[in-house]
Design brief:
alpha/beta; TIM Barrel; nine-stranded parallel sheet; 2 domains; Urease, subunit C, domain 1; six-stranded mixed sheet; 24% strand; globular; 348 residues
């Protein structure tokens, strides 16, 4: 039997106690002091879901002071030229390194907006089977066969934005993805405010960024129950500050993503720490980082019974060290190595 002690995230909140694992499953979650030898101590949670990444661009060296549009706007932003000219072997190594770093930093999966159509999705699936893939078509006009081929490999489709693509084209893609029962997601209001009514008419599973959103835009997201993924470190790189407190006040669920690997390593604890600092600077409560960090990303992907730790679950754990007692600052500011424990086979 393997045992872990500290503070456990359960449906009833944080419980001081311990977790026992046997034959690949959690067999007990108990209050109080642990009577057994333990493998690790700390905050015991399900692994993070890094809810927005671009993992294959990690090999790109970004010139200083480059604008967001020049760097990432399709089809000819620097990132897209880099992806087109890089070899499969180089991109595969880049993705594998990203996946290793992601797992060691406590994430069980990352939701990747995978460029390159069917070929790009195949590269990622082969290099990192545990990833959650949102493919991006390469055809200039809507091609239902291409979309179906992507969906045969991927978990859904992730689109740039309504500013970068013809809306009718995006609408057809979104319809096809919904018919397949898979994830549709889109960047929104990152460089400039975009029409949130158009975006929400696509019925996205989630949207990413909303740094330029108005309060009215955010309330519409709340009304339609569409989560927003915030990527605070990459936003700050381009001198944009996500309106975290306004988003929370609107009632929208927030998940976190580390965004482009060329800008930020998949260090989820660091991402949450920056998110918390921005929230506090905007007059928010540091405790409100808990949901976005530990819960909301998992809600995007998993049924309710897999969001928190419970007896009977497959043993897939992230243990974040802290010294004397569990506090948000103590968890996020601790530099000790995160402990990952999994007996799970296949995607995490």
């Amino acid at each position: 039997m393997d045992t872990f002690s500290g503070t456990v995230l359960t449906r009833d909140g944080f419980v001081d106690g311990y977790v026992c694992v046997e034959n690949g499953k959690i067999i007990a979650i108990e209050d109080g002091d642990c009577p057994y030898d333990v493998l690790a101590k700390g905050l015991i949670v399900p692994p993070f879901v890094n809810s927005h990444t671009h993992c294959a661009d990690g090999g790109l060296k970004v010139p200083p002071s480059m604008s967001l549009e020049d760097l990432v706007a399709p089809p000819d932003g620097l990132k897209h030229r880099y992806l087109r000219t890089s070899t499969d072997a180089f991109l595969t190594d880049t993705i594998k390194n990203f996946a290793i770093a992601s797992n060691s930093n406590g994430s069980g999966t990352f939701i990747d907006f995978r460029e390159g159509g069917v070929h790009g999705c195949n590269l990622l699936r082969n290099a990192s089977p545990e990833s959650t893939i949102l493919g991006r078509p390469v055809s200039e006009k809507y091609d239902p066969e291409e979309i179906d081929d992507i969906l045969d490999i991927a978990d859904g489709i992730g689109i740039s934005s309504i500013s970068d693509m013809d809306f009718g084209y995006i609408e057809k893609i979104a319809d096809r993805v919904r018919e397949a029962g898979k994830i549709f997601a889109i960047h929104a209001s990152e460089r400039t405010r975009e029409d949130v009514d158009l975006i929400l008419s696509l019925d996205p599973t989630f949207i990413v960024h909303m740094t330029e959103a108005t309060d009215s835009d955010l309330l519409k997201c709340a009304e339609t129950e569409v989560p927003i993924v915030i990527c605070a470190r990459s936003n700050l790189y381009f001198k944009r500050t996500p309106p975290i407190k306004r988003i929370l006040n609107s009632g929208v669920d927030i998940a976190l993503g580390t965004d482009n690997a060329m800008l930020c390593e998949p260090n989820f604890r660091a991402e949450a720490s920056v998110f918390k600092d921005i929230l506090v600077s905007q007059g928010g409560d540091a405790e409100d980082v808990i949901g976005p960090t530990f819960i909301q990303g998992r809600k995007i992907l998993y049924p309710d019974n897999r969001v928190y730790l419970s007896v009977g679950m497959v043993a897939d754990l992230t243990i974040l060290p802290y010294r004397k007692k569990f506090t948000i600052d103590g968890i996020l500011d601790c530099k000790e190595e995160i402990f990952r424990y999994t007996t799970k086979k296949g995607p995490q």
